[in-house]
Amino acid sequence: xxxxxxxxxxxxxxxxxxxxxxxxxxxxxxxxxxxxxxxxxxxxxxxxxxxxxxxxxxxxxxxxxxxxxxxxxxxxxxxxxxxxxxxxxxxxxxxxxxxxxxxxxxxxxxxxxxxxxxxxxxxxxxxxxxxxxxxxxxxxxxxxxxxxxxxxxxxxxxxxxxxxxxxxxxxxxxxxxxxxxxxxxxxxxxxxxxxxxxxxxxxxxxxxxxxxxxxxxxxxxxxxx
Length: 225
What we know:
Blueprint: H1 2-11, H2 15-21, H3 31-43, H4 46-59, H5 67-83, H6 90-99, H7 106-113, H8 121-137, H9 140-149, H10 163-224
């Protein structure tokens, strides 16, 4: 009988687990010994594995997952806990399901929490799947996207036409001021030069008058002599 049951048990195992459980070359291995070896691999460190799975169940959130994938992960974790001797009640599973929903399903989550009688896990999954389907067929999101991205006449930036003439006028006025200032400076320079030339002319006239006076005195002395 062992030669029939042992190959059947080996055929249900994966390759890695088969290498651990199977005793090659030992013909005295019974079906019970094989079963106990398999059980120890699945149920070994039961308390530690149950603690890890329980933490995973209570911290699981939906995020970007769809409703179907999110419910599937919760149900798989609860089934793994049940296999370890730690079954999860229906109420606890639904409460964890509602807790991990994202903001899109906040309204349906409030409805499920206040339901009387409290819904089962399958009923809650059906309600969430129907809500997700309704959101997907609603045209509100597409209309909002078009309204937010559509550009109207008011949203176009005005051309800076009014600023260009002011800049040109300012530059023209600056050129005019520069010319006027240069003209005024040139006028002052001419006056200064003219004043100096006038002084030189006066000096020249004074010198010629002195020479004329000395010449007339010399001629008067010559005639008296």
